[in-house]
Write a structure and sequence with these properties.
The complex is a heterodimer of chains A (about 200) and B (about 70). With about 200 residues, chain A is mainly α. Chain A has helices at about 10-30, 40-60, 70-85, 110-120, 130-140, 150-155, 175-190. Chain A has one domain (about 10-90, about 100-190). The longest helix of chain A has 24 residues, at about 10-30. Chain A is globular, with a radius of gyration of 17 Å. Chain B has about 70 residues and is mainly alpha-helical. Chain B has helices spanning about 15-25, 35-69. The chains are: A mainly alpha (about 200), B mainly alpha (about 70).
């Protein structure tokens, strides 16, 4: 069931977007000789979480009856990926992670979060300096969105489905602050006309 | 503004929850068109080559920095 105020068709349509990004991530990893795994229900969960975070953010920041903008939508999409973290290594071959050699085990989900945001506000995200990108990926990994945890728990406990109709959650202060900073960061990056210094 | 050793000034000036409640009373002024999901998908596809190359570069540099530690 969708978030209150949303229709099944909206969730299904948004799930197609997340499914597309998951497939792009999968192909990119395959070219690096890696295989990523995600649940078939992840695109739908990402859509549920997107609308929960987006609509909660909108309640405080947009006039009643108005629609949000690309920066807020980019922020909520990025946050949905952060909250769900759908991309896994092979669950059949669990391994001890060696931080000296597993060069990409921690990055697929923040990479995906960046891609989801960039689809709303095309910008040369990939041309940011290495340090700036690492800080972005660290921030994405560190943000927490506990207001959507009940939706995610329900999805986990129901084999990858969200049977309940959830109300729009109330964001915590840190969640609201994270979404504000994400939206502003993406909006500012959208103004970039030239890449930053590659080696800075 | 004068400074003072008034102990009341040792406290935080305001509770963030109350302040935010007042700030929220004046919302953003946007009212964009609904999201075009087909366009989003097209944007993501158009960016794929460049984003993948950027991720590859990032991971290469990560590997170099780890080895150099």
């Amino acid at each position: 069931m969708p978030i209150e105020g949303r229709g099944d068709d909206e969730v299904a349509s948004r799930a197609q977007f997340f499914d597309h990004i998951l497939n792009l991530m999968d192909r990119a990893a395959a070219r690096r000789g890696r295989t990523l795994f995600y649940h078939t229900g992840h695109p739908s969960l990402l859509a549920h979480v997107y609308f929960a975070l987006h609509d909660a953010f909108k309640l405080s920041y947009v006039k009643g009856g108005h629609l949000s903008d690309a920066a807020k939508r980019a922020a909520a999409s990025c946050a949905a990926v952060i909250a769900v973290a759908p991309l896994h290594p092979n669950p059949n071959t669990p391994r001890a992670i060696d931080p000296a050699t597993d060069d990409d085990v921690d990055y697929p989900n923040p990479f995906m979060a960046a891609r989801c945001a960039a689809a709303f506000l095309p910008h040369p995200f990939e041309k940011k300096s290495w340090d700036a990108r690492r800080r972005d990926y660290c921030a994405y990994t560190g943000f927490q969105f506990p207001s959507v945890d009940p939706i995610i728990r329900e999805w986990e406990n129901n084999g990858g489905a969200v049977p309940s109709k959830w109300p729009v959650p109330t964001l915590t202060g840190p969640e609201e602050a994270a979404l504000c900073l994400l939206a502003n960061g993406f909006q500012t990056a959208g103004l970039f006309q030239t890449p930053q210094q590659a080696t800075r | 503004m004068p400074s003072s050793n008034d102990p009341r000034l040792l406290k935080r000036a305001a509770d963030a929850t109350d302040v935010l409640k007042r700030m929220h009373a004046v919302p953003d002024d946007n009212n964009d068109l609904p999201t075009d999901v087909a366009q989003l998908i097209a944007n993501a596809s158009a960016q794929d080559t460049e984003m993948t190359a950027g991720e590859d570069d990032f991971l290469r540099e990560l590997d170099l920095r780890r080895k150099a530690r």
